[in-house]
Write the structure tokens for this entry.
Amino acid sequence: MTVTAPRGSQKKDTPSAAAVVHTGTSEIRELFTRNLRTSGIYIALVAIVALFAGLTGGASLGPGNITNIVLQYSYILILAIGMVIVIIAGHIDLSVGSVVALTGAVSAVVVIQYGQPWWVGVLAALATGLAIGAWHGYWVAYVGIPAFIVTLAGMLLFRGLTLVVLNNVSLSPFPADYGQIASGFLNGLLGGQGYDLFTLLIFAIAVIGYAFNQYRTRKTLISYNQLVPSFPLFIAKILVVAIAVMVFAWQLAIARGMPLVLIMLAILIMVYSVIMQRSVFGRQVYAIGGNVVAAALSGVKVRTVNFWIFVNMGLLSAVAGIVFSSRSNGAQPGAGNMFELDAIAAAFIGGAAVTGGVGKVVGAMAGGLIMAVMSNGMQLMGIDQSVQSVVKGLVLMLAVAFDIYNKRRAGSR
Amino acid sequence: MADHILEMQSITKTFPGVKALSGVSLAVERGEVHAICGENGAGKSTLMKVLSGVYPAGSYGGDILFKGQTCSFSGIRDSEHAGIVIIHQELALVPHLSIAENIFLGNERRGASGLIDWHKTNAEAAELLASVGLREEPTTPVGQLGVGKQQLVEIAKALSKEVQLLILDEPTAALNDNDSAHLLDLVRALRDRGITSIIISHKLNEIEAIADHTTVIRDGKTVETLDMTDPDVNVDRIIRGMVGRDLEAFYPDRDSNPGEVVLRVEDWTVKHPTQDRLVVDGASFEVRAGEVIGVAGLMGAGRTELMMSLFGRSYGKFVSGKIFMHGKEIHTRSVAAAIEARIAYATEDRKAFGLNLIDDIARNISAASLGKLASWGFVNHHEEARAAEFAMKSMNIKAPNVKSIVGKLSGGNQQKVVLSKWLLTDPEVLILDEPTRGIDVGAKYEIYTLINSFVDAGKAVVVISSDLLELLGTCDRIYALSTGRITGQLPAAEASEERLMTLMTKEKELTA
């Protein structure tokens, strides 16, 4: 028994007994609000990209600038992946900026002061991140101190340790191979005239993968009696995404090719999306955030899960720390300042709920990109730092207000 | 004609879908101690909320006459202003504030400047404490006091408001014998000072000892008001008034032929998680394959606490006791281990403890079986969806599809989701805590049918219920629990509401 209700059409072809009984208008309204809730963030992203493209006379979509956005905000996006998981479980992590600084500093000391190869620095930073995550996880999960307090303490603690490790001065420069992590490109692997064929090919494969995945999801939804958009709309959506992605790819290809950071980010996003949507661990994170008592009474080891959530945050903070130190070609005592707020904002703009239980990795990425495109666009326009801050603050406020408004209307609680 | 300080005349109160009160009348004489008795859910607390203005005038039917005047309270402040103070079972004290601050909270003693006059506050608090017989400094934080002393602080607070009618909702439920005795003495002393009290209590011995009149409520109606000075009125007489409800729901038939013992619990003892008292005290029981046992007990008897502590020690501090499955002792220190041992526990409060309301049906149903549905740590979505689809069909869960959000379902359908979740874990013992609370008659019948088909498959079921008729209608044997102890067991065929109620209200000294 399959039920497909066309989106945005008055026609109602849901005669099956299992389907909900709607009046025509309420069905449209529900479809509309449901779509606004789930894809509102992506629509907002497109709107903001378009807005700044117009305001900057297309400069924000220029080849150089697109590459620039990717490089400049990659570490915030990496942090946002970990942060959205922390937030889904109903916690918060205020320390990630300091952890970025400390892991970058450890790496710098190992590579610059002790002259070790780049990968030793990377491993040292990752180990530091894991240890910090375990520290936070211990206090939150096993002692039961709220994450807000634990990570506020961590924010001060690890900032202080950064100063100790760096002896209060900046360390630079890194050897050239370490710098490749953040500013390396894959270019000319397959040739191409004036454009990098390899970049285009990678993106083309990604687009095909996306289309295939969407098709499979649609089929599954139909087999479970779910409402899905009509077929032409479905194809239109995939086409729009495909064109947008390939334009993006083209701009990269005619600039400097495929940034290594982008490959890393793409792998992280895919891996963590699968973990959060498909793995037992991911499901337990949602269960804890949704109703911690019910989760515990269903046999979820709440403490263990909370512990590993923070270990993972520490690990991703270290990855961000490595990328950031590589990009800034050194370690500064003040590195990563306020990164936590950007990562938290990305998660909330991306639809995560303050009360936990709701959120998506991809949503947080869209949220992070909205912030990135806005900052970048305003910088291109030469808008004052103070105004930028005001705009970002208002966007965060409105995004969360919109989310709460939606929830109240849905009245699911 | 007696001098009535309070008359409540044919009070009715309706909640969506439920008639909580359908014509309760109550007349309280000036300067007496008036007790109110009734089964769980009979409407006692609702009645007191109507009286104290928690449910404002207009949201209920009937009249309240206090000191001869019709009252229409729009909130608790109004009723307190009139001199009616209610002390709830869950005390409303702020633990980090001092005794004096708590007593005058919202009613602060101010000096000429408009700021709080601490000398006056503490001096008046000290006087009030003396009058309730509590020897503590007024500056001591309330959190440092035991429950018994906190109860006295609540009464001191009521006295500070010049209370004329004091309502005590289950005042001794959480108290030990000494503190209870002291509290009852205090109520008597207040009566001598002319303060009228209404006491709601399940402890019938206490009521017999202290009350001048007792009003019995059943199913939202007043049954009778007993004069406690009458020598014929005793505990048994009160019980007779409390029970004797008409058979309103009916229960599907089941041939019972219990097999071997599946679960046996010996001498199970559990302490309160924060206070130094036993919540479950040496409970032993067993349940056989193909058998439904019931656990009867009044509020605070420790039914839920007993079962939750058995279920992976999810309540309180374990003191002693053994659990046997098929004669072999098992050690279930975590919920995961209990599920592994094939025990399932569906909680009493499905919204707060049983379901993730913001998630969908499929993911709620699979929540306790993710290990089984996963390989290499990844959940098999098809298996999960198939299990959920099967459950929706076999349980007759009414929802558009398995991806529907659970929070939007009706109570009965939510309860079926909870049951589906536990059946998916393939348990041998299914513990159901208030399985039909807040759901309509049709869904109730379906759940009874499910219980029957489950035991027909040779499994064992434990049902906790406040509804004695439900226990009589579904169980083979019924254990009665009173203040953490099992006070007896009866085969359903020999049990009656009276006999159960007698066991449920049996006090310690009678069983020790």
Observations:
- Strands of chain A lie at 185-186, 258-259.
- Chain A has 15 helices and two strands.
